[in-house]
Amino acid sequence: MRKICKITSLILVTLSLLNSVAFADISISPVDYDGTHITISGQSDEGDGKVVTLTMIKRDENSIDTPLGKEIYEMTEAELKNVYVKQTSLLNGEFLFKFTPVFANGIYDIYVNVEGVSGKANTKVYSYFNIDFLNNLLALINDGKAENVGDGTDKDAYKAIQDNLKTVFVGVSDIYLNQDVSIQKEIVKAICSLSGFENLDAVTVEINRLAVLSKIYALNDAVNTILNNESNLGLSGKPAFLVFSGEEDTFKKDVTNRLKDTSLDKDFVKLFTEAVYLEKIYQAKNTDEIYNIMENIKDNTEIDVSKYFSFSRKSEIDAALVGKKWDADTLTNKIDYVINNTSYPAGGGSGGSKGGGGSISVGTIVATVAGNSSQDTQNKPKLSFSDVPESHWGYKPVNTLYSRGVIQGDGEGKFYPERMVTRAEFAKMVSEMFSITDENAKSAFLDVSEADWYYLYVSSLSSNKIISGKTENEFVPNDYITREEAIQILYRIVVQKNSVIEKKREIIKFADTSDISDYALVGIMALYAGNILNGYEDETIKPKNKITRAESAQLIVNLYSNMR
C-alpha cells in the first residue's frame, strides 16, 4: 500500500530571503506567508508613481534554478500559462503585494522589479511549492521509480529520482551525499512524514540534520559528529551537551552507544539528554553522586522521577541505582520497586538492649556512655554484611552499631557503607545509640509529623536542643546530612550531658577552615582535639561533604567510647 505524505499546510513555502534584502535601489522586507496569502512589501528610491512588477514563474523541475530570463512580451503562449504578473505603483517610496497562490503542482519563483531599476534577473525574492509536489516525491520513492527508470532499489534509479527533483536537494551537505542510498531514502521519507515546513531552506536544513543523525545512529564517528554539529542538532546551550563535551572520551562513546540504531523520527535532543544522565548513573563512583544526577533528570528530561524526590529514604534508591545501566523505563520501574519493597523502622524502635555500665542524666535524657558491652551483643548474630568484610576500615564501628540494634542491613546481607545518610536517619542513629528518646517530646517542625517513622527521634533530640532545623520551622528530614551538621549534633550531646572529652592532641587549622560554618567551628575543633574526628590527608575537613553510613558509624562509636 502506497504511503501518502501528510503535510498540514496546503502550500509549503520557501523564503529565499529570510532577512531584508536590497537589490540595487529596491529593499525587500521579509516575505510573510500565513498559510493562505503571500505578502511581499518593500521600498525603493525611485519616485512615486513608478510601476512595481511582481512576476511569478513556474520552475523547470529538472533545474536547480530558473531565473526570469525573458521579458513578458517575449514569452510564448505556452510559457505565459505558467506565469503570474501583478503590478502596483510606488507610494511614498513603498509598495505592497498580497495574493493567494493557486497554481498547479510545481515549484514557483517570484521576482520583483521597479521601473527604471536594472538587474531584473537578480530580483528573485521568494519561492514556494505546493503539497502535490512533495506527494509526488514520496510516491516516486515508495514506488521505487523515476519516470522510466525501472526498479528504484537500483542506485542509478534512485539517483535519477534525485536528479529529477534537484530543487529539494539543493544545499545538502556532504554528510548526506556520502551516505548509502538506503540511508538517503530513509532521510527523504522522514522529511515527507513531517508536518509542514515554512520554507524550502528548512527542507535542506532538515535533510542535513537527519543525515547527521543517521551517521550518529550508525556509530560512524558518532562522538565527533555530535561535537561538530552542536547547533545543527539543537544542542546549543543544553546542559546535557555541556556535560557530554566535558567528559572523557570513553564516557562520550558510551553515550553514543546508547543511541545506536535509533529511528530517524525520534526526538534526538530528548534521547541524547536521557542517554547522558543515565550514563552518569552507570558511571557514578558512589551514591553521593546520584542525588545531583536525579535533579538533572528531573529538570532536563521527561523521565518521571517525582517519586524519588517524594520518598523519605532516597539513600535506599541511590544504593539500588548506582553503577547500574538503566534506560528511562527500567529506571522508573526500579524506583517504584525500591519504594514498594523498603521496610520502615517501627514507630520508635527498641534501640536494642542497653544493659551494663554507668550513666549520666540531664532532664529527661539518659545516655549510656561506657561499660561492658557483652550484654549488648549477646542477642545479636555476628555481623555478616557482604559489603563490610573484616578488612573494611569501617568493620568495627559498623559491627558495634549493628550489635546494639542501631543499624540494620537491607535484608539481603548488605549494609551499603558508602551510601549517604539523611538527616532523619542520622537522628535515629544517635538517638538510639545514646538512648535519647522522650515519648512526651513534641516536634515544632512543620515537615515532621507524628505519622513519620522518625518523629520520636527528631522530636526527642529537638526538644533537648541537640538537633535543629534548616530553618525555624523546617527540619528537612530527607536531605542528606553534611559532615559539619553531624559533628555539631554529636558535640551538642556532649554539652547537654555535661560530659568531658579528654584532649588528646593539639587543634590545627585545616586547609578549608574558612569553609566551616560559624555554628559548627567549636564542635569540629573540640571533637578533633579529642581524637573523635579526623581530617583528610590533604589537611582538609570537608565540612560541606555528605557523610556516609560507615563514616557516621565511626563518628558515633568514637564519641560513645570517649565520653565520660
Explain what this protein looks like in three dimensions.
The strands form three sheets. A five-stranded antiparallel beta sheet has the order 1-10-9-6-7. Strands 2, 3, 4, 5 and 8 form a five-stranded antiparallel beta sheet that branches. The protein has three domains: 11-130, Sandwich (Immunoglobulin-like); 135-339, no CATH class; 359-562, no CATH class. Helices cover 38% and strands 11% of the residues. The protein is of the alpha+beta class and 564 residues long. It contains 22 helices and twelve strands. The model is unreliable at 1-24, 62-68, 145-153 and 343-381 (pLDDT under 50).
Summarize the structure.
This protein is of the alpha+beta class and 564 residues long. The chain is 38% helix and 11% strand.
